[in-house]
Specification:
GO molecular function, one term: ATP binding
CATH class of the largest domain: Alpha Beta
Domain N-acetyltransferase: 32-186
Number of helices: 25
Shape: flat
Largest sheet: 8 strands, mixed
InterPro entries: Acyl_CoA_acyltransferase, ATP_grasp_subdomain_1, CoA-bd, GNAT_dom, NAD(P)-bd_dom_sf, Succ_CoA_lig_flav_dom, Succinyl-CoA_synth-like
Protein name: Acyl-CoA synthetase (NDP forming)
Radius of gyration: 32 Å
Distance between the termini: 28 Å
Length: 901
């Protein structure tokens, strides 16, 4: 049996940065573990160095260096993790690569790598560089330098292809490399492209194995082990199939060759499907590692869904498998399906094998997977691949989206989500995928923010609307029911995307036409001309004539056909006419045809395998379902067509000064605190946000003096939080022109609110009158799950009660900011409502971008409110702010450096 990898958790040296530990995916799709080096790694380092070739050693030290001295080992393993740091990559109990940096100046460090020859070409150098750069940035280092021999082309490539702007000089026979390590758009793009390729390949290893072993196979009918063997066999798996059961001496199980252990299988095994008791799974993982298995599907239960003990077992399962290069689907999973003819894999507990199709499906729920597959079979909706992740200890929807992004067999992606383990990465990956293929998502638990049993995720405190906003930002098609999920999938899998919102209706039922029109009005779709209402006994010729007009009408972007047959008619002739009229059209066509809920045989364009090819016309139970699906497809098409969006450049932002300010503030307030007025203005100034000064006053005389200093035309404002926006109390007295006005205002407001008993906490402030405008609020919150989230809305109690807010995750593109302003229901107030002047929308968008940049740069800004902003015809004035800075105990999950989360 393979040994368990060494554990370092409880014995870290002082200052050990545990947050830098990461499971990573290599270029070939295998996994490894990356972590900071420790003094306990001395033997690991010596063994690693002994396996490295003499040439690689020469490239590292510029001289023959056959072995490390005790002094070398001590120096290389004993670091301070600040000025000197090193990261190693391990697989199982072996080190396969190491990278280190050593500070050479206040903000400069020299970086070097050594990769075992057998593992060169797997992307280790690139991964180490990314993670070293992240660690160095956190310690105030902004620039890396390196010395490389001219013929060490692999290392030169690591630097030049990282996406940084690299400067090279040739000096004394050595190439001097130097570059800033601040993330750039280019370096982000490089990392994300590498991430997509490696994670996609890691999933391909699971979905297209050449050989599969069922561990826990059984001869007894009704058992999980027996069902898995039967479904793999009966599903027509084209590869080699093996059954493994330690309790049997049989040569075969269900006609499949059987072995007592996986090590006894006289063949390579790519994928292991595990169905043993939970307490046995860890030993199975070690056996699979020794056998060289590439991936695991664990259907066994008894993990996080049973409580603390199960959570520990699940965490250990994922870490153990990854440490030996394997990805895990599950535990408590239904399994995986790949309908590609060259694979034909049904490694699930469902006997139903859907037909080949263009729709891919990720489902977190194992229990829901069986009825979902059954519904797809009933509808005749073909699949390309299906994955039920169960407790999702490792492989998640993010991984599958990375795979489907480049999978030519998949044209539409469906997601059933119970939780989001890494919302920031989900948003980024899904947005990239949606730009290429439609993604339809159903998120359960939105109203409760509940986390299902078995889902080990951070619990968000944000309102459910955040999920909807994130879906819109990423271009996802959000739906509310599984029926709606498949309705939209039927349309997208068979018909083109609409080019606009105008819909033509051809119908022989007035009642159903009215239903369609009502649904269109509610969905924001428009009617193209008058509906073509035919008589109930309309013939095929009547439908043909009406459809000819519709398809020739440039006003119509989509067509809905409603056919309710007269007595003793099967509609075959009408179907032929509809299919012929739609053939070759670039307008999507939907139908309510004989109340069927699939792609009827009469409206089907058969593909090579007898399924429904593109151009087939889907049918829905009633026009409401058809129009609802069409509306979802229409808005997605609009999202795809929108002009290119970009993250704006803000040249006046001083990120370094802001970071230094935050670091110094936390030295003074190690537990965090709310910033005072001066500190708030200072921090916001680094991001080009100015605040109209407000001056605290304790008496009428002081208020008069401050107003005089400001030249009057001021306001007097109560500052206590409980008085803000009270509909029954006026907390602001405006238009104070002289001393008499101020004394009158003071008398009235102190009678209402009283005077602060603590002089250090002023209850009133005097502030210069701002130009007239519409009051809005811009906020940002650092959520433990989502990371930074920016919020926009109009000020007012009614807005708060209705939750009329828009949400987005930074970084904000120009499109994101524009949509945030326009999607709140009170937005008409900004555009000239009932004769008022329109406000400066660009000023709002500018503030949104600046707040987005600030909260993205500074994790420690856990809450920021521009809680009173007046937006006028020209510009916006920030009147009141609140900011809290605190140490971030749980770092963001989607870091610039690639890692599995």
């Amino acid at each position: 049996m393979t040994q368990q990898p060494a554990q370092y958790g409880p014995h870290h040296p002082a200052g050990y940065p545990a947050e830098l530990e990461a499971d990573v995916v290599l270029r070939d799709g295998a996994t490894a573990h990356l972590r900071p080096i420790t003094p306990d790694d001395a033997d690991l380092l010596v063994a690693f160095y002994a396996r490295v070739s003499e040439q690689s050693k020469y490239y590292r030290f510029f001289a023959p260096y056959p072995q490390l001295s005790d002094r070398d080992v001590a120096r290389f393993t004993q670091v301070d993790y600040h000025d000197r740091s090193a990261l190693i990559v391990t697989v199982g109990n072996e080190m396969i690569g190491v990278g280190r940096y050593e500070r050479t100046g206040p903000r400069t460090a020299e970086v070097a790598f050594l990769i075992e020859d057998a593992h060169q070409g797997r992307g280790l150098g690139q991964l180490l560089l990314e993670h070293l750069a992240q660690a160095a940035r956190e310690n105030g280092i902004t620039r890396f330098v390196a010395e490389v021999l001219p013929d060490n082309r692999k290392m030169i490539t690591v630097f030049t292809e990282a996406g940084y702007k690299v400067m090279r000089e040739f000096e004394d026979g050595v190439i001097m490399v130097e570059f800033d390590i601040a993330p750039t758009d280019t370096s982000f793009g490089v990392m994300q492209a590498r991430e997509q390729r490696s994670e996609a390949l890691s999933i391909a290893r699971l979905l297209a194995p050449s050989s599969v072993a069922v561990i826990g196979a059984s001869r007894r009918e009704g058992t999980i082990g027996n069902a898995l063997v039967r479904n793999l066999r009966d599903g027509g798996f084209t590869g080699r199939l093996y059954a493994v059961n330690t309790d049997t001496e049989a040569d075969e199980i269900e006609g499949v060759p059987a072995y007592p252990t996986i090590s006894d299988v006289d063949d390579t095994v790519d994928l292991a499907v595990v169905a043993v008791r939970a307490e046995m799974v860890a030993d199975v993982v070690l056996d699979c590692a020794a056998k060289g298995v590439r991936g695991l599907v664990v259907v066994s239960s008894g993990f996080a869904e049973i409580g603390d003990e199960g959570r520990k077992r699940q965490r250990y399962l994922a870490g153990l498998a990854r440490s030996y290069g394997m990805r895990v689907i599950g535990p408590n999973a239904l399994g995986v399906i790949n309908t590609a003819p060259e694979v034909s894999l049904n490694a699930t507990l469902s006997p139903l094998m859907p037909s080949r199709g263009r729709v891919a499906f990720f489902c977190q729920s194992g229990a829901l997977g069986v009825p979902i597959l059954a519904d797809m079979v009933r509808r005749g909706l073909g699949l390309s691949s299906f994955v039920s992740a169960g407790n999702r200890a490792d492989v998640s929807g993010n991984d599958l989206m990375q795979f489907w992004y480049s999978d030519e067999s998949t044209e539409v992606v469906l997601l059933y989500l119970e939780s989001l383990g890494n919302p920031r990465k989900f948003s980024r990956v899904s947005r990239r995928l949606a730009g290429r293929k439609p993604v339809v998502a159903l998120k359960s638990g939105r109203s409760t923010q509940g986390v299902p049993l078995g889902q080990m995720v951070r619990r968000s405190q944000l309102p459910p609307a955040t999920i909807d906003s994130m879906f819109r930002q990423s271009g996802l098609i959000g739906v509310d029911t599984t029926g709606e999920l498949f309705d939209v999938a039927q349309l997208l899998a068979h018909q083109p995307l609409p080019k606009g919102r105008r819909v033509a209706i051809v119908s022989n039922s007035d009642a159903l036409t009215l239903l369609a029109l009502d649904t269109m009005a509610g969905c924001g779709l428009d009617v193209a001309g008058e509906p073509r209402n035919l008589s109930p006994d309309a013939t095929a010729e009547d439908f043909g004539a009406a459809l000819s007009e519709v398809f020739a009408d440039d006003r119509a972007h989509s067509v809905v056909v409603i056919y309710t047959p007269p007595v003793q008619s099967n509609g075959a002739e009408v179907a032929q006419v509809v299919a012929a009229a739609a053939a070759g059209s670039d307008k999507p066509v939907l139908s309510t045809f004989l109340a069927s809920r699939s792609v009827p045989e009469e409206l089907r364009v058969p593909d090579a395998e007898g399924g429904a090819a593109r151009g087939s016309i889907p049918s829905f139970l009633n026009p409401q379902y058809a129009v609802g699906a069409l509306a979802k497809a229409t808005y997605y098409a609009e999202w795809r067509r929108r002009s290119d969006s970009r993250i704006p450049d803000l040249p006046d932002v001083d990120t370094r000064a802001a970071e230094d300010f935050v670091a110094e503030y936390l030295q003074r307030h190690p537990n965090g605190a709310d910033l005072n007025d001066a500190d708030r203005q200072m921090l916001l100034s680094f991001y080009g946000i100015s605040v109209l000064p407000a001056f605290p006053v304790q008496s009428a005389d002081e208020a008069v003096q401050r107003a005089a200093d400001l030249g009057f035309e001021v306001i007097l404002k109560a500052t206590a939080e409980q008085w803000r926006m009270r509909p029954d109390l006026a907390d602001i007295w405006r238009h104070i022109h002289d001393e008499d006005d101020m004394r009158g205002a003071w008398a009235e407001m102190t009678q209402t609110f009283g005077v602060a008993s603590d002089p250090s906490r002023a209850q009133f402030v005097v502030q210069k009158m701002a130009p007239p405008g519409v009051p809005v609020v811009v906020s940002a919150l650092e959520d433990v799950s989502f990371g930074p989230v920016v919020t926009f809305g109009l000020s007012g109690v009614a807005t708060d009660l209705l939750g009329d807010r828009s949400y987005r995750m930074p970084p904000l593109t120009t499109r994101d900011a524009a949509e945030m302003v326009r999607e709140v229901r009170a937005a008409p107030l900004l555009y000239g409502y009932r004769g008022t002047d329109p406000v400066d929308i660009s000023a709002i968008e500018n503030l949104l971008h600046r707040v987005s940049r600030l909260t993205l740069d500074l994790e420690e800004v856990v809450k920021l409110d521009l809680r009173s902003v007046l937006v006028g015809a020209q510009g916006a004035t920030v009147l009141d702010t609140a900011i809290r800075i605190a140490p971030n105990e749980k770092p963001r999950q989607d870091t610039p450096a690639r890692r599995l989360t």
